[in-house]
Amino acid sequence: VPSRSGGATARCFAALGGRGRGATGWFALDAPVELRILENGQVIGLSGGAPLMLPAGRHQVELVNDSLEMHLTRTLTIAPGQSTRVSVPLPNGTLFVNAAPWAEIFVDGQSIGTTPLGAVPLAVGSHELIAKHPQLGEQRRAIVVAAQTPARVSMDLRR
User: Fold this and answer.
1) Lowest mean pLDDT, pick from 14-23, 35-44, 87-96, 136-145
2) Residue among 26, 35, 31, 89 at smallest CA distance from 62
3) How would you list the strands of the sheet with 151-156, edge to edge?
4) Is 8 helix (H, G, I), strand (E, B) or coil?
5) Calpha distance 51→3 (Å, rounded)
6) What's this model's pTM, rounded to 2 decimal places?
7) Distance between CA 42 and CA 57 in Å, rounded?
8) Distance between alpha carbon 8 and the CA centroid of its chain, in Å?
9) How many C-alpha atoms does 151 have within 13 Å on its Cβ side?
C-alpha cells in the first residue's frame, strides 16, 4: 500500500477469509541448518525465512538439504487464521577418526575418546575436530557430517 505522507512504500501481508473455502494459515520451520521446503516437488520456502501462507488443511512437505544428505517428510495441518511452527531436530550421522600415532579427539570442545574411533554418532552439520597428543601437540580440522555417508578423518600428528 503506497504511503501518501512520506513517499515510502510499506508492504503488508494478511491472511483473509474465514473458515470456509479459501481460508489460509501460516507455517514456519525451525531448523539448525538451512532446509528447502517443498510441496508437490515445488520449492515453497526455506527454513529460517518468513512464515509461509498456506491454504488451510493437510499438507505433506519435504525438507531437503542436499549437501547434508537430509531428506525428511512431514505432514502438517494448517488451521485457518492460525500459525503452525515445526521444529526439526538434526538426525545423527557417523564419524570415523584415526590418527598416527594416536590422539585424544575433541569435537566442538567435548572429548569423544582416543583413536581409533569408529561409528561415533554425531549430529549432522559442521563441527570442529581437534586431535591432541601429549608430545606431538594438536591438529584442528573443520568437518561436515552428513546424514547418510560417514565422515572419515585420518590425521598424522608426526607432521
Assistant:
1) 14-23
2) 35
3) 117-123, 92-100, 151-156
4) coil
5) 25
6) 0.73
7) 18
8) 36
9) 27
